[in-house]
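Quick one - inputs below.
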Amino acid sequence: MDSEQPRVFKVKFPSDLDYVGPIRKFVAETLGVSKFSPKFAYRSEVIVDEICHNAITHGSRTADAAVEIECRIFSDRFEFQVNDQGGKKDDIERLKKAMKKADVQASDFPEENDGRGLGLEIVRLLSEEIKMEIGDDNMTTVRVVRKREDA
Amino acid sequence: MQELKIQKMPVELRPDLSMWKLEGELGPESIARIQAEFELVLDSKQNFLIAEMSGVTQVSSAAIGQLMGCRQLLSERGGDLVITGVSLDIKSKLSAMGATKIFKFYNELRSAINAYHWEVERKAEKVGLSFPPELQFVPPVRQMVSRIARQKGYSHRDSFRIETIVDEICNNAVEHGSEKVKKNIDLTVQINREKIELEVANASDPDKIENLRAVSSSLSKPPTADAGQRRGRGLALIKMLSNNLDINFSGEGTSVHVTKLREE
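Output:
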């Protein structure tokens, strides 16, 4: 696979936890057939689960909200992006805080060690790069990059 | 003893739905209160009630029986009474009372609202997928659609047949698609309680399209005894497994639309 010509997959699904299982399995199986190791595929599945779960529970304001994911598979890395509507002000603040917490060490925030934001800490632990963008009208994008471990 | 409080809460995502926030002990003395509040729900012509129970500290079989009666009435009107936010301790008590076989439980409000769309309004849910035109990606795609069908309550048999249809239409899209135009294949899935609709669109290869057109038109004719005729088996299989099959050819692309009714 040419490292500059990624395989691109896009999925748009209703903001409903019912879809998270099938979607995360789809991503893991796609990585499997793209010759990534089972370990890499499974850890990527964990990331997809955490980020999609966050997008549904904290990033959906309307009854008909949808979540969009984009996967770009290169020979040496996997890039994953999730877009959601963005939640209420509280949700956005919590996400920013969790991102900040993930940028440093969780132990720097002992008073906030209540389990919230744990998902992003897991994502941070398993990936090389995690970025968040909040656009107009709170539209939120989380982008994760994982590099092939057996390269 | 902590007396039961029933607070009517607005449902921001769906203002037309009713939600109770229950706090305290659901004891036998709370039955009259539940009945009075429930009559207000009936008067307002609402038939879907969400009971948020994260603040409930104790449950009695008498009060749960009362809630079951409320649920029965809503059910007869085509609605439901569902429970959200219940703690593990309370849920195990409800399970011992047999209530987990009667009520539907959701971890959060959004899931309960989604259940309303699905169960009561019978709305279709839509999933869009775009994937590269390579055969190796068809198995993950077909399994994803099959898992969605299972998750939405379709039987193993229905889900497997849906998986077979997706496999065939996606393989066709790859095999008969353009090799020059490396455009992703688009799959759209619309699913509701009664049926699933699948649409696959791909860039066409002008050299292959006549062959596909011939195979497509032969589907409307009775099968011949020509055992050597191997082309078109996939489309024939889709036709057998589905309730409707439409193929549209245009200069730029081909789209296949399949409808499969839920059988079980």
